[in-house]
Automatic annotation (TrEMBL), chain A:
Protein name per its UniProtKB record: Tetratricopeptide repeat protein
Species whose genome carries this gene: Polyangium fumosum
Organism lineage: Bacteria, Pseudomonadati, Myxococcota, Polyangia, Polyangiales
Annotated keywords: Membrane, Transmembrane, Transmembrane helix
InterPro entries: TPR-like_helical_dom_sf (IPR011990)
Transmembrane regions: 44-63
Automatic annotation (TrEMBL), chain B:
UniProt cross-references to InterPro entries, sorted A to Z: RNA_pol_sigma-70-like, RNA_pol_sigma-70_dom, RNA_pol_sigma70_r2, RNA_pol_sigma70_r4_t2, RNA_pol_sigma_r2, RNA_pol_sigma_r3/r4-like, WH-like_DNA-bd_sf
All residue ranges annotated as the RNA polymerase sigma-70 region domain in the record: 42-109
GO process annotations (BP): DNA-templated transcription initiation
Family designation: Belongs to the sigma-70 factor family. ECF subfamily.
Keywords tagged on the record: Sigma factor, Transcription, Transcription regulation
Protein name: RNA polymerase sigma factor
Residue ranges of every copy of the RNA polymerase sigma factor 70 region 4 type domain listed in the record: 138-190
Organism of this sequence: Polyangium fumosum
Record-linked SUPFAM superfamilies: Sigma2 domain of RNA polymerase sigma factors, Sigma3 and sigma4 domains of RNA polymerase sigma factors
GO MF term list: DNA binding; sigma factor activity
Origin organism lineage: Bacteria, Pseudomonadati, Myxococcota, Polyangia, Polyangiales
One Pfam short name: Sigma70_r4_2
PANTHER family: RNA POLYMERASE ECF-TYPE SIGMA FACTO, RNA POLYMERASE SIGMA-70 FACTOR ECF SUBFAMILY
């Protein structure tokens, strides 16, 4: 009985389906229209994404060929907010700028065997210090081309070379480039020169640290920013602020600044941390 | 006898081989996404696919939508066509793979229509017979809505479309024993559901 009913219902379903009229032409047009629009979408996507991919690949290849890939990557990471925790903790320290082109004249000195075991005294750091002349002496520095504001430079020298720079002096040092945006390059150079003076000539770590900070605040993406960061780390070592120094040196050692001072930073870090058991 | 052996390939094998070659070429064009090939396959197999879709979903609109989906997805599906089955069987298997969504929408539509009491009246010469046939078909559709999709597919393929268990298994991509088991369970459940409906 149940079987009969199921069979009858099956037959009824078959007949009902056979009796129903299909919309063949309508569905055919719909199928072809859908396929056409899909193809158009695919073509549009290809037209957009292929040039984009080509530009991306070309840029990466160019950056790799010119050894700028690590710095570009660092910049990208920095701009997107990744790896900020790796940067210096103190509020006074400037944000680490992207590593510019490693300056050729900062040829890395030999550090093998010069790294000391003692944490307090670091003979190696002297050897590893970048001996970059002040920008006015550098052939690339456009100090003479732009009208140099002679008022700003002495102020910076005073701020950088003083053993304990006061906050207002630092503020003045920062405000100077903002007040006169046109001779910015020259102001940065003056700041760099002041820091260089305090670091290499006066050999005042506290003053040099303040001066490097001032330079980095004024020119966070400046030409000498990587050197400024490295020298700043050396000042921190000299002042006994090893934790802060280590954080900065780790960035160099990990290649965040490309190959610039990578080996020296590694040697210095090894020396600071002492022999591994 | 010998002469017959020599002549047989001329009469029987050649057309089969050429038909297979034509289908191969057609499939190759489908893989390239040629609109003309899709249109050709559509014109040839629409009736088969539509009939299966209508029997499976029990709904005209859902059947047309399913047919649309089958032919739209044909260029990508043709990439995995190995020629082990006929193109017709392959198209029905695509319909099976796309059926789930359409079955759901067809069931929803049926429930909504029944709730509103709008049952389309047949305009045929024998209205009484047609009404009882339509009622039976609707009862079976309602019962089918309560089955799992694989069991429903197995029932439609074997009972409504009169396909063999082997063919149904090929379409569903399962072993023949699985197809038979699904059909057995489907029939058992449908009997119970129809009996329940009759006693109501």
């Amino acid at each position: 009985m149940k079987d009969d009913m199921l069979r009858a219902a099956t037959r009824a379903l078959r007949e009902e389906a056979d009796a129903s009229q299909g919309r063949q032409a309508e569905t055919r047009a719909r199928v072809l229209a859908t396929l056409k629009s899909r193809r158009a979408r695919k073509l549009a996507a290809i037209r957009v994404f292929v040039p984009l991919a080509a530009v991306l690949v070309g840029s990466v290849a160019w950056a790799e060929a010119t050894h700028r890939l690590p710095s570009v990557w660092y910049e990208l990471k920095h701009d997107l907010g990744f790896g900020r925790e790796e940067e210096e903790a103190p509020a006074t320290a400037p944000a680490i700028p992207p590593a510019g082109r490693p300056v050729a004249k900062n040829a890395a000195p030999a550090v093998t065997g010069e790294a000391p075991a003692d944490k307090a005294e670091m003979p190696a750091e002297k050897a590893a210090e970048p001996e970059v002349p002040p920008p006015s002496e550098a052939p690339a520095a456009p100090a003479e081309t732009v009208g140099a504001p002679t008022v700003v430079a002495p102020k910076i020298v005073a701020a950088a070379s003083s053993p304990k720079p006061s906050a207002p002096t630092e503020a003045a040092a920062i405000e100077a480039p903002e007040a006169a945006p046109a001779p910015r390059v020259d102001t940065d150079d003056a700041l760099y020169r002041a820091a260089h003076q305090a670091h290499f000539v006066t050999r005042d770590p506290a003053g040099a640290l303040a001066a490097w900070d001032a330079y980095l605040r004024a020119a966070p993406r400046g030409r000498f920013a990587p050197e400024a960061h490295y020298n700043r780390a050396l000042c921190l070592v000299r002042l006994g602020r090893t934790a802060e120094a280590e954080r900065t040196l780790e960035l160099f050692a990990s290649g965040s600044f490309g190959g610039y001072r990578k080996a020296e930073a590694k040697a210095l870090l090894d020396a600071m941390r002492g022999p591994t058991p | 006898m010998r002469a017959l052996d020599l002549l047989a390939p001329l009469f029987f094998s050649r057309p089969t081989a050429s038909a297979a070659r034509v289908e191969e070429e057609l499939v190759e064009r489908l893989r390239r996404g040629e609109s003309s090939a899709i249109a050709e396959v559509y014109d040839e197999h629409y009736a088969t696919v539509r009939a299966f879709a209508r029997r499976l979903t029990g709904d005209d609109a859902a059947a047309e939508d399913l047919v649309h989906d089958v032919f739209v997805s044909l260029p990508s599906a043709a990439q995995r066509f190995r020629g082990e089955s006929s193109l017709k069987t392959f198209l029905v298997s695509i319909a099976v793979n796309h059926a789930r969504h359409h079955l759901r929408s067809a069931a929803r539509r049926r429930v909504a229509l029944e709730r509103l009491g709008r049952e389309p009246l047949p305009d045929a010469p024998n209205p009484e017979r047609d009404v009882s046939r339509a009622a039976l078909a609707r009862a079976l559709d309602r019962a089918l809505d309560q089955l799992p999709v694989p069991q429903r597919v197995a029932f439609v393929l074997c009972e409504v479309e009169d396909r063999s268990a082997r063919e149904a298994a090929e379409i569903m991509g399962v072993p023949e024993a699985t197809a038979r088991t699904r059909l057995f369970h489907a029939k058992q459940k449908l009997r119970a559901l129809l009996d329940e409906e009759e006693s109501r």
